[in-house]
Design goal:
This protein is 80% helix and 0% strand. With 305 residues, the protein is mostly helical. Keywords: Cell membrane, Membrane, Transmembrane, Transmembrane helix, Transport.
Length: 305
């Protein structure tokens, strides 16, 4: 990628950006709840359509249009970003569906699982080796998911789809040689034809629920582009200013906020199987975080020495 993470143990003011990005993602269900009268597929299409002009505006300000055009002409890069675009579109659609259908808890669980799935993806595709503590964390999380098979199978697909689609998306974006914002712009560009077709279809259907039927809904759909791009820009800034290990601790903020929203704002019922799974996932995250902290501490000791 064009922008590199800061060395392990460094922190050049990245924490506020990381907190803002993950806090933004945590509270996003409140925004999409305002659109629950609109079909999820139309929300996704409008989100993609309006993300692109916002990306171009920011790229022009940051003088990254050239990076976008260079990457767009590279067939290898374009092919990889086409795959990542499909993955992020699936992730967004399932996430929107989870909010509209009252399953924010399942979405929260998916993003709790995401860093643990990242560990497995790194092992399978990047040749990374699991530490002993990481293997323990993954095993505990697997037990939690197994419990859901028996008590909450109806929403398990949401959690697993969100976790795996975002992990595979992250894998591609990790290896593709393009910056965060130009990459997002290319992803929305390749998705634009289908998204425009879907958007035009729903506008033509005129069912009174989507874009053009109500000024408030229309402006909210336009704002979806900003809601998509802003936290990604904050995240990219944070990644340049702090280590990925440190960033890993902050990423649990978003699903924690979603978990609280689902219980106290959306009043979703917490099934016994879900509660047991969450407890195991939190234990798994504690083990995972301990291993991250241990590695960061060792790296600092080496730097000091």
């Amino acid at each position: 990628m064009a922008s590199q993470a800061a060395p392990a143990g460094s922190n050049q003011g990245g924490l506020p950006y990381a907190l803002a990005a993950y806090g933004f993602w945590g509270f996003v269900p409140l925004f999409f709840k305002l659109l629950e009268s609109v079909p999820p597929l139309e929300v996704l299409a409008q989100r993609i359509v309006w993300s692109l002009p916002f990306c171009f505006l920011v790229m022009a300000f940051r003088r990254q249009i050239g990076d976008y055009l260079v990457a767009l002409k590279d067939w290898r890069v374009l092919r990889m970003l086409l795959a990542s675009a499909v993955l992020i579109a699936i992730n967004w659609l399932v996430y929107i569906h989870s909010i509209f259908s009252g399953h924010v808890l399942a979405a929260s669980l998916g993003y709790y699982l995401n860093p643990l799935v990242n560990v497995m993806v790194g092992m399978l595709f990047l040749g990374e080796r699991l530490s002993r503590w990481q293997m323990v964390a993954v095993a505990i999380a697997a037990v939690g998911v197994a419990i859901l098979l028996g008590g909450a199978l109806d929403t398990l697909w949401i959690s697993l789809t969100l976790a795996f689609s975002f992990s595979l998306y992250g894998l591609i974006r990790k290896v593709v040689p393009v910056g965060s914002l130009p990459g997002l712009a290319i992803e929305t560009t390749v998705l634009l034809p289908v998204s425009l077709a879907v958007a035009v279809y729903y506008v033509g259907a005129g069912d009174g629920r989507g874009f053009g039927a109500d000024s408030g809904i229309s402006w909210l759909l336009v704002a979806g582009g900003v809601v998509t791009a802003v936290p990604l820009l904050l995240f990219a800034t944070a990644a340049r200013r702090m280590s990925y290990a440190a960033l890993g601790f902050v990423q649990f903020l978003a699903p924690t906020i979603q978990f609280v929203l689902s219980l106290f704002i959306f009043h979703e019922p917490l099934k016994p199987a879900q509660l047991a799974c969450f407890l195991l996932i939190w234990i798994s995250i504690a083990v995972f975080s301990f291993d991250m902290w241990r590695k960061m501490r060792a790296e600092r000791m080496i730097e000091i020495a």
